[in-house]
Amino acid sequence: MSKPVRAAVMGTGSWGTAFGMVLADAGCEVTLWARRPEPVEAVNSTRTNPDYLPGVELPRNLRATADAAEALADADFTVLAVPSQTLRANLAEWLPLLAPDTVLVSLMKGVELGSAMRMSEVVEDVAKVGAERIAVVTGPNLAREIAARMPAAAVVACADETVAQRLQTACHTPYFRPYTETDVVGCELGGAVKNVIGLAVGIADGMGLGDNAKGSLITRGLAETARLGVVLGADPLTFSGLAGLGDLVATCSSPLSRNHTFGTNLGKGMTLEETIAVTRQTAEGVKSCESVADLARRHGVEMPITETVVDIVHEGKPPVVALKELMSRSAKPERR
Questions:
Q1: What homologous superfamily is domain 188-327 in, according to CATH?
Q2: Which end of the chain is least crowded, N or C, by CB within 10 Å?
Q3: What is the pTM of this model?
Q4: Which residues bind NADPH (predicted)?
């Protein structure tokens, strides 16, 4: 009888905890790592994570620890579920503890500030492992719905298709259906840029601009993502799939989306500081909009919606002024 797959999930936020639950429901032995003792005690004694997923009962084959070495020991999959801008420092700290052949799985949807690296590039840079040891999970995966075991699909991407298939098997449950993909670049860009477009749509919703504006932002946001992706070597078809359109629609239409909610508060007139104060969890697009814009500039790609979000979030430009400037840009063919 083969031994069960072991997975370490590094981070006990809502998505890390929910994906840990998926892995456990699929039959893996899962250890959640938390920096603080409180969530460890809650998970192990009450089978819940009240800070992030209150009321959700976690499986018995999922436990928690504050000891990174204990979590990472002999893990077949090491799932990285920390805020994207903290990945480099955290992974460097864990590096000596990683199991020799573990596959490093990124749940993060962001681009690193300063380096403009995607998360898999940060992993490769820090861990010095080949592409066959790095995988990505992405798609329309709102953590609260998955924690409620509502039906969802996802993409598990790795340059090595056999590794993607292993991960697919490790997280396939009756409510969570993963598809394999080898286009890591496209999958990561879809996840990172959709957070920025989610902010833009939230701002428009907060301003009461209507569904035509929402539909336009989603569609033109997808065009921006694809333009950047093609320049970086992604397959254009990736952006019409779960990692592109699927994730974008879920983020831009759900009140469960942190980025959409953050943008809505900005659109209603709250300041950045006020919005941060009422947001308990990380809205990745708030920082990633700058790094995505930086990445686009480095490659000569126009991303006007992304630049508009940067102007509003980080330059203090009033949304009404930013909207007027965006709508007043010179007219052009749609597919250019």
A1: N-(1-d-carboxylethyl)-l-norvaline Dehydrogenase; domain 2 (1.10.1040.10)
A2: N
A3: 0.94
A4: 14-15, 35-36, 52, 109, 143, 258, 284
